[in-house]
Amino acid sequence: MKKLLLLGMAVILTAALAGCGGGHDDNFVAGPGLVGIDDSVSDTAPLLRVDFVDPVLGAGTAQILSNPASDGDIARDPVTAAFTITQSPPVLLFGVDSLDPDLPEFRAFLTFPLDGSTGQDALPGTAAIVSATLEVFVDQVDFASVVPTFIDLVEYPITGLAAVDFNSVPLDFRTLDFLFSDQGNFVQIDITPFLQQAQDLALLDLQTRFLIDTGGTLSATRGPAREAVRTVHPAPRPLDNLKPNRRPSATRPDPSTRHR
Question: Is the pLDDT of residue 72 over 60?
Answer without folding.
Answer: yes
